[in-house]
Specification:
Layout lengths: L1 H29 L28 H16 L11 H6 L4 H5 L2 H13 L3 H15 L3 H16 L11 H10 L9 H20 L2 H11 L6
Helix pairs in contact: 5-6, 6-7, 6-9
């Protein structure tokens, strides 16, 4: 099993390297060549290769990255999300949409995903929602780059599971990053959570224990 995973990673690495090369060629044809295009490896800002240039980051970029990560990690953190009402929690089995439209629902569901080691799915979905709200082109491009590095790159420990079709769409969208660059990927992850994790959460002790805690009368003063 271990050797199969290594081979799979090698194949994925090759696919991403080829995709990066095709993006570079497309930018050459469009006359939109990056300033560092003389070094094809350094064009690979999306972290799809394991070259040494990935370790060469300026101090400014490192600071920007750490600031962005603190912001995205802290946003909508389950422990900081509002406590659900009993009525709210009882509505979640009706549909996955009920969970995702509730701030408390997203927080509790994210905590469950954390126990299943798939919290990155909710983090990616939420990062895409925040991206859609952004209108500043420079900020959009930075957020797109950051989301790619955090959740799409095969080198990231928080990589989400996407099929090859969606990954190809993402690489094409990277030519002109917009606030909707990851729409297809976000929908695929939403569907994955809806079909896979959501039913398990509804049947979990985490959800039943939550209902019990909400049904208990508050302690008398």
């Amino acid at each position: 099993m271990g050797s199969e995973r290594v081979e799979m990673r090698k194949r994925q690495m090759q696919v991403h390297q080829e995709a990066a090369a095709s993006v570079l060629q497309a930018r050459h044809r469009m006359g939109n060549t990056p300033t560092n295009a003389s070094n094809a490896c350094c064009f690979c800002w999306c972290c799809c290769c394991s070259c040494s240039c990935l370790t060469v980051r300026s101090e400014d970029e490192t600071i920007q990255r750490s600031t962005f990560e603190r912001r995205t990690e802290g946003t909508n953190n389950c422990e900081e999300s509002p406590k659900p009402t009993l009525e709210d929690a009882r509505s979640w089995p009706m549909s996955f949409e009920k969970v995702m439209k509730s701030a408390a629902g997203r927080g509790c569901f994210r905590q469950f995903l954390r126990t299943e080691f798939s919290e990155e799915n909710m983090m990616f979905w939420f990062a895409c929602e925040e991206l859609k709200k952004e209108t500043n082109k420079t900020v959009v491009e930075e957020k797109v780059r950051q989301i790619y590095e955090d959740f799409i790159s095969i080198l990231s420990p928080k990589e989400v599971s996407l099929d090859s079709r969606v990954r190809e769409v993402i690489h094409r969208n990277m030519l002109e990053p917009t606030s909707h660059t990851f729409n297809d990927a976000q929908q695929q992850i939403y569907t994955l959570m809806q079909r896979d994790s959501y039913p398990r959460y509804m049947n979990s002790t985490a959800y039943t224990d939550l209902l019990k805690s909400l049904e208990e009368p508050p302690p008398e003063p």
